[in-house]
Design brief:
- The protein has one domain (about 25-249): Alpha-Beta Complex (Spore Coat Polysaccharide Biosynthesis Protein SpsA, Chain A), CATH 3.90.550.10.
- It has helices at about 55-65, 80-90, 105-115, 135-145, 190-200, 210-215, 235-249; strands spanning about 25-30, 50, 50-55, 70-75, 95-100, 120-125, 150-155, 160-165, 170-175, 180, 185-190, 220-225.
- It is α/β, with parallel strands linked by helices.
- About 30% of the residues lie in helices and about 25% in strands.
- The radius of gyration is 18 Å and the shape is globular.
Length: about 250
């Protein structure tokens, strides 16, 4: 796991909520998207990696995390999406549940959030496409929320040089020392995540849930991410993920 000094310790001791959350931990996995950049075929979360759908890899990691009590998957609402996801998760350990997702990622998260039991006061949101995220990242995010942070994201330093452009013209070189690539799971107190979704504009969807919290003016803390928590979006990403699986085995 990364130990870049710009991130380590930034979530610890940040009392953004006034009190550390002590209820159960739930993880929402929005898995209703089509994943068109992967090419034609099944919804992205159901594409296979090493003989199992991306969703199964992701949920296996989540239920393996000792701090996680419940995983709720927002499945494709059109048949056979809901039934297929229920079948895939039936043999996994832990408490897993399936709800119908929405037309957008944001709507899917909101629907799953509304379906959580009342005693879940720490909520993580995790992309099924980040199927190889290590358990340590999940535990670090939960630990930061338990420590008093209202919103937490795992991040990595940006390795590439970043240019601002206008068309094909470079206008500036961006200082990458202050930039971070954001991963999931992202963690929140339930109250803050609920407030953020209630205040959001569905016509202006954010690319992640932390963006909705930022729009409230609330602080978002960071913990170190991991290189293997990359998002599987393109056919090349699938090739890379297969290589990671072979190395793990």
């Amino acid at each position: 796991m990364s130990t870049d000094p710009a991130e380590t310790g930034s979530a610890a001791g940040a009392a953004d909520t006034g009190a550390a959350a002590r209820g159960r931990v739930a993880v929402i996995v929005p898995a209703a998207g089509k994943g068109e950049r992967l090419g034609p075929g099944a919804p992205k979360a159901l594409r296979e990696l090493g003989g199992f759908p991306l969703l199964v890899h992701a949920v296996r990691t989540l239920v393996a995390a000792r701090s996680v009590d419940l995983v709720v998957v927002a499945a494709p609402p059109a048949p056979p999406g809901l039934a297929e996801v229920q079948r895939l998760l039936a043999d996994l350990p832990g408490d897993t549940r399936v709800v119908a997702g929405g037309e957008s990622r944001q709507e899917s998260v909101a629907l799953a959030l509304a379906a959580l039991p009342a005693d879940c006061d720490v909520v993580l949101v995790h992309d099924a496409a980040r199927a190889l995220t290590p358990v340590d990242v999940v535990e670090a995010v939960v630990g930061a929320v338990r420590g008093g942070a209202g919103a937490v994201i795992p991040v990595l330093p940006v390795a590439d040089t970043i240019k601002a452009v206008d068309g094909d013209l470079v206008t500036a070189t961006v200082d990458r020392s202050t930039l971070r690539a954001v991963q999931t799971p992202q963690g929140f107190t339930r109250d803050i995540l609920t407030e953020a979704h209630a205040a959001s504009d569905p016509s202006l969807p954010a690319t992640d849930d932390a963006g909705l919290v930022e729009a409230l003016g609330r602080p978002v803390r960071t913990v170190p991410g991991h290189a293997e928590a990359f998002k599987i979006t393109t056919p090349f990403d699938l090739v890379l993920a297969e290589a990671v699986l072979r190395r793990r085995r």
